[in-house]
Amino acid sequence: MKKLIFILITFILLFLVLALFEGVLRLAGYGRDYPLFIQKGSTLVTNPDFARKYFSDADISIPELIEQKIPLKKGNGVPRIVALGGSTTAGFPYEVNINFPWFLKTRLQREWPGKKVEMINLGISAVNSFTVADMTDEVIALEPDAVLIYMGHNEFYGALGPASTQAIGSNRALIRLTLWLREWRLYQLLQNGLRLFSPAEQGKSKASLMSQMIGRAQLLPGDPLYRTTLDNFSANLSEILSTLKEAGIHVIISPLVSNLRDQYPLGHTPLMEEKENRERYEQARAAWQADSTAAALNRLSPLLKLKPVPAEAAWLAAKIYDRLGQWPQAESYYRLARDNDPMPFRAPSAINRIIDSLAGRFGVPLTDTGERFRRQAREHIPGNDLFLEHLHPNQRGYALIARSFEQRLSFLKDAGATGRDTLSLKSYLAEQPFTLFDMRIGEMKVESLLEGFPFNGRTVFTGTPSTPLVDSLVRRHIYHKLFWDGAHFELGDYYKQNNRYDEALAEYEAVYYNDPTNPSALYRIGDIYLLKKEFDRAAEWYRRALEVTPGKAYLYAKLGRTLMIAEKTDEALKALETVIQLEKQKKTLKDDDRKTLYYLLGVGYARQGKYRRAEAAANMSLSIDRKFYPPFALKQKIKRLKKISGKK
After folding, report:
1. Cα-based angle 105, 110, 114 (whole degrees, multiple of 5)
2. What is the DSSP string of 431-457?
3. Given a cut of 70, is residue 94 above it in pLDDT?
4. pTM reported for the whole predicted model
5. How crowded is the C-beta side of 293, counted as CA atoms within 13 Å?
6. What is the pairing mode between strands 146-150 and 118-121?
7. What distance lies between CA 331 and its chain's CA centroid?
């Protein structure tokens, strides 16, 4: 008994010492927390370091959350929707405005003009269900009206995945314990201490994040680790759905889709290393390339009876049936090639079966994403018509995912989610505020990705026809840190100078929809409507810019000029006189702008019959530029008007 008491006291003392040490480290500011959001005043901002918690290797290019700001306190009547998942949810390889949460938000905003909708995209590249489960409590704290889930592709190779370089075993309890310990400063101190004895880092690898995550290049369905991975996914998803449902939050989950038709298996099946199997495969492939399908199937047949069927053989069988026009058989073999791929970056059918089963168990709506992709795909087999590479959709594919979620949001009636599905895919995309520049960002990233491991140039990709100017701006953005909005402005300004007003408007609107408080986007949109002689709309956008940045002389000048052209003289003079007052405090306008300002004042005063003030304004304009003709013409007009009216 005494021995037991002694052991107990020893453990208590040890715990107290550790707790004291932990407290000292926290007070000293050592280490870091990993909150999902950081509070800044009355605003919550996504934490760029959040994902670091899930990556242990300092040489990995750790991904970040998309930068977003939301009010600390949820507004009354403002629907708040959170999207969870990996890189597809984040919109990889695109940026900002081509992803399914963004498409869904802009669609809902159009359904109810003037109504604010908060869409929070918490997708992170290279993470899996362990990360999503770990962030669930913080998601609940945001008080969302709905949570959208699209995840499962990264279970094997995502952070903490058993085949990844970031693996810490496959035992779910051990992984969860490790994540808990990573919040402790003592654990962080120990990790940092161990790094002192590790080889010096040589800087981050230039390889893609995808290739950096590959720890084990072969993992077949019969492997016990494969089964454990599926079990962990099922347990994590079950916990996520249970926790969100208990909190009273609407949850919608999507099955996963991937490129079946145009993605050769990424891994290499060990059975294909046997000489006889390899020879049969090469002979079958040669016959297929020679358009001898019967001979190809004959040589391939023994390989299709192996257990498991090698992914390469299933892929070739799919191609043969595809050429024969026997598409149900082709689709079946395409799926088998994906499911037996020894490098399972594309989620196998087993993942979708788990999603379907748990959605039914918890009463969670399941989207029809898979069926939509089948309907839109050529011969109902999704390929490069909807995907960029192995699993990331192109803009058409992202639109399909968005529409599938929208159909399940009918309970958000006040947010304009009507459940209607009347637009064609082409019309739906035409409503979305992105341009060729945004598409080429993603495509150029994919072109680079496909050159490296594990694709090694085997995946065929054809980009969208572009122009030298667009591609130059894309390269400057990706490789030379040109800001995304700045690139859109450069492109829009070019189009404006070449009288391509609709194209310029599209570039400016892309920035505006991403940030409605960007004054440069607001006044540039106004400039285009002015050039299109839509004066009321131009004035509206200038007023919006002034609401965002009040007291800007150049904005009042733009507004005044527009109103003067529209012959709204009283309003125009009020705006122009404001410019004069602002310029007395601080000179910001160039001489060209100032001479035009005084000329317009003169025009306005002349219209009101205030001829002395009109002449004075014209003279001020001429004092700035004696060669500026309009004020000369105005003075002559004033003389005629004075004679007619009899005024002096």
Report:
1. 95
2. TS---HHHHHHHHHHHHHHHHSTTTTT
3. yes
4. 0.91
5. 10
6. unpaired
7. 30
Burial class (CB in 10 A: 0-12, 13-18, 19+), 590: exposed
C-alpha 10 chain-centroid distance: 52
Amino acid 632: pLDDT: 87
Say if residue 392's pLDDT is above 80: yes
Six token digits for residue 88? 């597809």
The residue behind tokens 């006189």 is 577
DSSP assignments along 156-194, one per residue: TTSTT-TTBTT---S-HHHHHHHHHHTTSHHHHHHHHHH
What's the pLDDT score for residue 288? Answer: 92
CA distances, 546 to each of 489, 549, 564 (Å): 19, 5, 18
Q: Which amino acid is at 517?
A: T
Give the tokens for residue 352: 């979708």
The domain ranges of the chain are 1-30, 37-194+210-260+347-434, 270-339
Q: What is the 3-state secondary structure (H, E, C) of 254-275?
A: CCCCCCCCCCCCCCCCHHHHCH
What sign has the CA pseudo-torsion 5, 8, 13, 14? positive
Provide the token pair at 382.
């999704």
- With contact defined as beta carbons under 8 Å apart, do 99 and 434 qualify? no
Buried b (16+ CB within 10 A) or exposed e, 62-93: bbebbeeebeeeeeeeebbbbbbbbbbbbbbb
Name which of 114, 182, 195, 126 is nearest 155 in CA terms.
126
Q: What angle do CA 331, 332, 335 make, to 5 degrees?
A: 85
Q: Which amino acid is at 464?
A: T
Average pLDDT over residues 245-258: 97
- 631 in Cβ contact with 599 (< 8 Å): yes
CATH pick for 270-339 out of 3.30.565.10, 3.30.1360.120, 1.25.40.10, 1.10.10.10: 1.25.40.10
Give the strand pairing for 37-40 and 43-46. antiparallel
Q: Measure Cα distances from 169 to 130, 163, 165 in Å.
A: 13, 9, 11
Phi first, then psi, for residue 85 (nearest 5°) are 150, -160
Average pLDDT over residues 534-538: 97
Instruction: Encode pLDDT of 98-144 as tens digits.
Output: 999 999 999 998 887 777 889 999 999 999 999 999 999 999 999 99
Rounded to an integer, what distance in angstroms lies between the CA atom of residue 83 and that of residue 135?
Answer: 12
Which CATH superfamily, name and number, covers 37-194+210-260+347-434? SGNH hydrolase (3.40.50.1110)
DSSP secondary structure string, 282-324? Answer: HHHHHHHHTT-HHHHHHHHGGGGGSSSPPHHHHHHHHHHHHHH
Say whether the peptide bond before residue 308 is cis (omega within 30 degrees of 0): yes
What's the burial of 263, exposed, middle or buried (CB within 10 Å: 0-12/13-18/19+)?
A: buried
Identity of the amino acid at 319:
K
Pick the closest to residue 337 from 360, 301, 361, 313 (CA basis): 313
Name the nearest CA neighbour of 122 among 40, 107, 144: 144
